[in-house]
Amino acid sequence: MSTEMLQKVQDNFSAAVGVAMVIVDPEGVPVTKPSGFSDFCRAVRARADWRERCFHCDAVGGRTALSTGSPSIYRCHCSLVDFAAPIIVRGEYLGAVICGQVKLTSDEEATGLIDLSNIFPIEGSWREHQPLLDEHHRINEVSYEKLRSAAYSLFYIASHIVEESYSRGVAQELYAKNLRLAEESKRRAELERLLREAELQALSYQVNPHFLFNVLNTIGRLALVENAQETENTVHAFADMMRYVLKKSGSQFVPLRMEVEHVRNYLHLLRLRVGDRFEFSLDVPDEFLDVLCPVMVLQPIVENCINYAIEPRESGGLIEISAYRDGVELIIDIVDNGDGISPERKQAVLRGEADRGGRKSIGIYNIDSRLRYYFGTDHGLEILSPFRQGRGTLVRMRFPLEFEPFDF
């Protein structure tokens, strides 16, 4: 609510009418700066114990007004007369407009006046201080009707301002919620599109026909030159890969052990094709194997390492995959020792605009977008390149060790 606007109205009204005014909360504590306060009242409120008495009187006056829904008149602990007008919005009591700190020309007209002047101990009273007594005598007298009119006028004005502020706040909140709903709908539509693309990629790009052809050739050659043990292992690895891809392409989350096993099979089959041109390591402690993770987030990144860091070189390639805890989150790092990538290409990859062989490479973009959707915009992929000794690339992902997959 605009206390600045209330302050301006209060200051101008106090100056025009010639009475002290302030707006207080339900406990009698001022929300606005006092307007038109006498030297006596400022001196009394400068002392903590007397100020608390002032707050109490204003709180009682405000709650009395709340019970009737209209201004109430009362005599404060310093024997000055105040009006309290309640501010109520949507049935909630927000505080009161306090108007007065005067003496009445006649108490006869002040029907319903509540006397709070004797509810506090006499000890330590302001009456023991002659300078305050002198200031008290100098306080002007005001007619009951003038004070009552001022209280009602400011009550209506303040209530209108507060009501308008409330309505404006509700409208702004509703607008913000509509924006959030529109953004959420857009993100959900994008996720559905990405999931559909992920399913297609699992059958076409991530496990492409060229790769399948090479695997089948390798199996055929092995069947001719050895006693079929290695062939059996190869077929099992290949079958496990296909089973994972075909059965899990519609899932959103799987245990990390399934992702790790899928990558292990993938790298095992790659080693059969390219020989000892690269080495790989999988350092994923057993304690993390049952942690749920988004499906198909490791293999596309590893395939990227193969395409850009391993394929271009004759030997010495290296891929390292490690998992570790960082507080309540699981960190997975995929590192290669290739030539690295430029900042421009890194941004293009994350935007899904990188080109390879005449077609868009959107695997990394897909993973980055899904991680951001599932766990928040601060959980996107991190790509550091060069990473080690001026070479190589690190791709890092992180997600909670514990979360509720049914929320997605």
TrEMBL record:
<feature type="coiled-coil region">
    <location>
        <begin position="181"/>
        <end position="208"/>
    </location>
</feature>
<feature type="domain" description="Histidine kinase/HSP90-like ATPase">
    <location>
        <begin position="297"/>
        <end position="402"/>
    </location>
</feature>
<protein>
    <submittedName>
        <fullName>Histidine kinase</fullName>
    </submittedName>
</protein>
<dbReference type="Pfam" id="PF10114">
    <property type="entry name" value="PocR"/>
</dbReference>
<dbReference type="GO" id="GO:0016020">
    <property type="term" value="C:membrane"/>
</dbReference>
<keyword id="KW-0808">Transferase</keyword>
<feature type="domain" description="PocR">
    <location>
        <begin position="3"/>
        <end position="166"/>
    </location>
</feature>
<dbReference type="InterPro" id="IPR010559">
    <property type="entry name" value="Sig_transdc_His_kin_internal"/>
</dbReference>
<feature type="domain" description="Signal transduction histidine kinase internal region">
    <location>
        <begin position="198"/>
        <end position="278"/>
    </location>
</feature>
<dbReference type="Pfam" id="PF06580">
    <property type="entry name" value="His_kinase"/>
</dbReference>
<keyword id="KW-0418">Kinase</keyword>
<dbReference type="InterPro" id="IPR003594">
    <property type="entry name" value="HATPase_dom"/>
</dbReference>
<dbReference type="Pfam" id="PF02518">
    <property type="entry name" value="HATPase_c"/>
</dbReference>
<keyword id="KW-0175">Coiled coil</keyword>
<dbReference type="GO" id="GO:0000155">
    <property type="term" value="F:phosphorelay sensor kinase activity"/>
</dbReference>
<dbReference type="InterPro" id="IPR050640">
    <property type="entry name" value="Bact_2-comp_sensor_kinase"/>
</dbReference>
<dbReference type="InterPro" id="IPR018771">
    <property type="entry name" value="PocR_dom"/>
</dbReference>
<dbReference type="InterPro" id="IPR036890">
    <property type="entry name" value="HATPase_C_sf"/>
</dbReference>
